[in-house]
Predict the structure.
Amino acid sequence: MSSKTKYRFETQAVRTQSTQTGFREHSTPLYLTSSFTFETAEQGRDIFSGDEDGYLYSRFSNPSCDEFVDKMSVLEGAESGIATATGMAAIFVTFAALLEKGDHLIASKAIFGNSINIIQKILPKWGIEHTLVDIKKQETWEQAVQPNTKMLFYETPANPALDIVDMEQASELCKTHKIIHCVDNCFSTPYLQQPIKFGADLVIHSATKFIDGQGRVMGGAILGKSGLVEKTYEFLRRTGPSLSPFNAWVLSKSLETLAVRMDKHCDNAIQLAKHLENHSEISFVTYPFLDNFYQVDLAKKQMKSGGGIVSFDLSGGASRGSKFLNSLQMSSLTANLGDTRTIATHPASTTHSKITELERLEVGITPGLVRISAGLEHINDIIEDIEEAIHLSK
Ligand SMILES: Cc1ncc(COP(=O)(O)O)c(C=O)c1O
């Protein structure tokens, strides 16, 4: 590791790297190997037993994965971390490693649909209870606390309505009741927001989104307090939802450009949001840094910039939403976000189609809600594409 804590965010993202090999390479090599050799039988024994440090087997130890994790830990201000195959693997490993039969989990209703699926369909099989709470009524979360409550889990900003959780308030709740405070920081990345600074114990990432930022590889990470991370490591080591060294190498390289990419995503997103703000065909636009966003002060306290996602409600409901998507010429219709390419999604007919209309409305998903992940194209091309589609979908 050549990282020094005195460096600033951008420098850490570029300069945190594995130890150079004897070839004196400048760019970190990819360690595409399933296992590592031992010089002697005794060394193998000692590395297995933990008496000697050393790489062993890539399900749980690999230099490419370590570089990615070390960099993510430095950027999030975390004591340690592990890398996982996907964001869902990070969420599942966190729950499975830290919750036990009889434990209770409090989670925000406004989280990614698959996270809800794990909580509602998988955890109950193991006797893990849950309560889903309203993100718009954070002052009521304490009422959900039970003697067996072990963890609080939420996203901020949340997908796709972009409501913000007051992380300091959530920390107080967790400290008072000795609850593990766990934040999915996928929408912000550590460049825009570092939940640990606001008291979170664990930060979870889908690195598939802005961290890769180019729509290429899947990945995830769990970062935070060493004692908790250690338990997730033991679980991952035994069960195997590990990040591939190749993906780790891609993701570590991607982190080198995270700051410049995020600045541009945020710049394009706010320009788009401002353009749509007073549009006659749009009932409302949501973007955390818009002056009239109901939580703008909280967003500005917690985030460096408003992020790359803009949501808006197209007058005309669900059918107008579908027509709008079909009228786009440039923006991509795809199930991802945080790409160089602008992506449009209609949550009611896609990501959130399996929940009821009432459940959708509870998390801010109106029938005409469109989510735009602002890419890195020229802003005028993004605006023109969306304008034209609004016009054609009338
Ligand atoms: C907020 C959030 N968390 C987690 C995930 C899951 O990540 P992955 O697709 O890498 O498993 C997603 C995916 O869309 C997401 O939006």
About this structure: The pocket of pyridoxal-5'-phosphate is lined by residues 86-88, 112, 155, 159, 184, 186, 206, 208, 218, 220 (CB under 6 Å).
